[in-house]
Amino acid sequence: MELQEYLGILRKWWWLVLMGVLLGGGTGYVVSRFDPMIYEAKTTLIIGNFVQSANPSTSELMTSQSLGESYAEIIKREPILRATVNALGLNIEWTDLQSRVTVKLVPNTQLFEIRVTDLNPYNAKALADELGRKLILQSPTTLNQDQETQRQFIKAELTELQKNINETRQQIKDKRALLDLEVTADGVRQLQQEIDFLQARLDNLQRSYASMLEFSPEERANHLAVIEPAVVPTTPTNAGAAIRNALLAAVIGLVITMGVAFLAEYLDDTVKTIEDVERILNLPTLATVSYIDELKTPEENVVVTKDNFSPSAESYRSLRTNIQFSGGQNSKTLLVTSSMNSEGKSMTAANLAVSMAQGDKRVILIDADLRRPSLHKVFKLPNQVGLSSLLLDTTADLESALDSALVRRKVNNLWVLPSGPIPSNPTELIDSPQMDKVLVELQKRADIVIIDSPPLLAVADSRILATRVGATILVIEAGRIHTQVCQRSGAVLAQVGIKPLGVVLNKFNPRHTKDGYYYYNYYYYSPESRQKKESKKEVEVK
What we know:
alpha/beta, 4-stranded antiparallel β-sheet, 21 helices, 12 strands, rod-shaped
């Protein structure tokens, strides 16, 4: 399938696609407008005391990040969530809070954020802060009584060690000053021994300080603290969600309706285009006749005399020309039939007859549909005498009977033979020798005889007539008749050795073809219609 064919499908189903977009977008917008506003608050915590360290090591950073992942899981567990719900006195289950809590680790840092959503911005802030506090209480940051005693002891010891270290350093400094002033060998040796002793003592004090500092609870890697409390959010997280959801729903509606349109076209096996006719029946399309909106009653079916510049009139003139160049000019009898009822065969026969009569040919149009005749309605003729009368009365003079039965129309060179009264045995009459005599006599009086017959698949009349005429035309209603029906019609004619001259594609939509759009726009208006439209444009401009 080419791009133009895809575009043709979209032009055909544009209303469905537009409806899907509008319905999807409108539904998404309305539903989103009724959604409650959701607010999000966040509390930021830090793992460890590395903010106090000028150059934290890589291992310390990796440890804090691993701890952050653990805390992210711990905060969603029952102890933390239940304790938070109970502390705030909320009338909800802890499982309800679980789905509203998320934890985000800040990459390459010791920070992580506790995010909580709620319909109330103040509740969101309270929940975020309380979750942070409960997490700290459940972490090693919180010291018990023994740990607090140990912390106080280590703190005092560290203070004392720091004092001793400073005093020892000062003593070493003083001894080195005296050493610089000493001139005797014994004095230098004695001062150097004292400096070495003080240096050894300083080293011991520093090692003790480092060991004591390592066991300090305050310096643990999993020390947890709040670095940024939550604030009351002012903007809901779903602000603008109505527009986003509307656009998303519109896109979904577009995709679905386009899928439905393409699926409908894929499943639709009706004959719609000239290409379909050639593919299914291996027959040429003699003419395509667009759907005529103005025709509401059978009496209005002759369009050639109404508007000589209408696209339908042009189609029938093209049909006349194509018949002449397709071998039909050698046939003095032409049968117009269809597969089923109401495909437009009578309209085609009537307009083709008018078009040929306008082309300076003597034309006789016969209504051979002895079951559901319609040509007498089209041309507003009496139907008391007609073809059935000629076939039933085999003793009457045929020439005189034809003189009284044929009705000349206002169009020059056009005579119409109505069907006459509906007989009880139409198939037998059509297959009678009298029918052959009637056709022979009519061919003497006209350049071409056009016969409107019943549908092929309904009765045997058309098959019988097809064997007695020079050419047959098959009328197909575009977009209604399925492939199998057309194939059956072709098979029916093939059984009696008849290959149709071609096909008239009736009620044809020109937009279904690649070049139909230009065809449609070129012939859409008659000169009078175009003049009216141009006059209207001039008035609007003025």
